[in-house]
Amino acid sequence: MAMNPQALPDAEFLFRLAEAADRETLPRFRQSGVVDNKRAESFDPVTEADREAERAIRALIAATYPEHAILGEEHGAVGEGPLRWVIDPIDGTRAFISGIPVWGTLIGLLVEGRARLGIMSQPFTGERFWADGTASFRQDRTGRQRNAVRPTTRLEAATVFTTSPRLFQGALLDRFLAIEAAARLTRFGTDCYAFAMLAAGQVDLVVEAGLQPYDIVALVPIIEQAGGIVTTFDGGRPENGGHIVAAATPELHAEALRLIG
């Protein structure tokens, strides 16, 4: 049975979750705290800010919506049911530990497997990007605005972002390089911030490899409710992560898939 949209949490609850995370992340930013490595074979950093921000988010969800399930990057999955929160307390931990303010807290809500609500909070710059189920918005120190993607339809006119070309291997790297060669401008880094800039009409295309659900769920409604498109490389839904293409227009999305899919 489909969920009643009126039963969903509202934007104010998203803000409360973001504020709970901000209280843990912002005081620790640029403070040279301890950085642990989650993997022996490569550098996958995690900090106290990651762990404590996720604990704060989970505690508020559990107190307000105890029937909701939760999946978080640092503390795993709990609960079952049609409503599941998906949390990345700091998307861009490498940027966080480097003192660069392009990281963000990602909090998204799945409704029967579909991303419906989401927020990205960047407390150092004072920015938030969110989707309330019907529209996408952003707020910074100048005020609140509705997000809308750019009308870019051709790759030759597009600004493209990815975290790093090193994420692509073999034939996939060749395909990404074809996109880079065709695009007007390609830039690297910024993790979730690039997706937020797509929704805000500053970037046209974001291509990423090997994302986890907590890397993308919060961003999907922010982009889709701004008029954009987010899929896997084979055109499927993006909620489970994987290789992801986010585009401003259907035409640009189709052109990217022809090169990368």
Automatic annotation (TrEMBL):
Its cofactor is Mg(2+). CDD domains: Bacterial_IMPase_like_1. Keywords: Amino-acid biosynthesis, Histidine biosynthesis, Hydrolase, Magnesium, Metal-binding. One of its GO terms (molecular function) is inositol monophosphate 1-phosphatase activity. It catalyses: L-histidinol phosphate + H2O = L-histidinol + phosphate. It comes from Aureimonas endophytica. Mg(2+) 1 binds at E73, D88, D91, D215. Its EC number is 3.1.3.15. InterPro entries: His_9_proposed, Inositol_monoP_metal-BS, Inositol_monophosphatase-like. Pathway: Amino-acid biosynthesis; L-histidine biosynthesis; L-histidine from 5-phospho-alpha-D-ribose 1-diphosphate: step 8/9. Belongs to the inositol monophosphatase superfamily. One of its GO terms (biological process) is L-histidine biosynthetic process. This is Histidinol-phosphatase. Mg(2+) 2 binds at I90.
